[in-house]
Amino acid sequence: MFNRRWHAIVPAKRLKHAKSRLGREDLALPFITDVITALSNSELVASVTVISADPTICELARDSNCRVIVESQSDGLLPAIYLGIASLEPPDQRSILVVLGDLPCLLPAQVDTFLNRGAEYESAFVPDAEGIGSTMWMRTRSTAPMPHFGPRSRAMHRESGAIEILDKELIGARRDVDTAVNLWDAIRIGVGAATRNALDKNESGDIFNDGQDQRDESEILVTISQVSPLVGLDEKGRFHSLEDLNLSPLIQPRIGQRFILPPIRG
Predict the structure, then answer these.
(1) Rounded distance between C-alpha atoms, residue 72 and residue 94, angstroms
(2) Omega before 229 within 30 of 0, i.e. cis
């Protein structure tokens, strides 16, 4: 029998404030959906609590059978996390998992790997892919120091005594998405169903840039995010079809290659 004793907490910003650096607010809800799905399908997570001031996120959480705490206003990640921890009964406050809502590559197996590895310690965390921040944190005792998220949170977690978990299986758990480069890296790793559906919709809809909607005289730096068909992602999070371009320098195009897209002239 699986030991479903962990209580997951997911803080979530208002959608209109989320992913401003990425320039793709439409992806914030799919990201959270994939995180909730991963936690709900974990073999070790007993409950999921979502804390947000956004009614759309709260509705999604309720539909996903999560506990919901509605903030009167969005005061940031740490106040939301502390509110979520305080909402649990004392016996549950020692088995807490905190997961950020912008991990579209997160899988149930990665959640379980982190919990199994981290259960050996009083508290543990997963650093982000850049090695500066953190994406997940857990504790096994209510006396453990509270979590730190935001700038330099990796260093602050280590200073607090939390143990860093760097299992190679956690590649998706480390890939938070704040920029277009983060997004293509997430696509390379493999995103969840909700994010993939949103990306597919944008590729065929009005956000997909095939050169006909906005003709820009300036050069655009793109990163190959898909090879069949060939698609590139620019630094503003817009997709570009590359199928009809002469990419002779790219003998074998691969995900992650970057190059300058020639100016589109009318």
Answers:
(1) 26
(2) yes
Question: Helix 108-118 vs helix 28-40: angle between axes, to the nearest 10 degrees?
Answer: 60
Average the pLDDT over 19-39 and give the result.
88
- In 10 A of CB 251, how many CB atoms? 6
- Please report, as a single letter, which amino acid is at residue 32: I
Residue 243 burial by CB count (10 A; 0-12/13-18/19+): exposed, middle or buried? exposed
**Partners of 226 in beta bridges:** 231
Over residues 68-126, the pLDDT tens digits come to 999 987 778 999 999 999 999 988 888 999 999 999 999 999 999 999 999 999 999 99
**Is the predicted pLDDT of residue 237 greater than 70, yes or no?**
no
Mark whether 21 and 111 lie in a shared domain. Answer: yes
What DSSP state is assigned to residue 213? Answer: S
Number of compact structural domains in the chain: 2
Band the pLDDT of 2: cuts 50, 70, 90. Answer: low
CATH number for position 54 = 3.90.550.10
230-234: strand order across its sheet: 239-241, 230-234, 220-227, 258-261
> Cβ(196)–Cβ(104) under 8 Å?
no
* CA distance to 37, 93, 174, 228, per residue, from 2 (Å): 18, 19, 25, 40
What does the DSSP assignment read for 161-209? Answer: TPEE---GGGHHHH----SHHHHHHHHHH---HHHHHHHHHHHHSTTSB
Residues 125 and 239 in one domain: no
pLDDT the model gives residue 19: 66
Which SS3 state, helix, strand or coil, does residue 63 take? Answer: helix
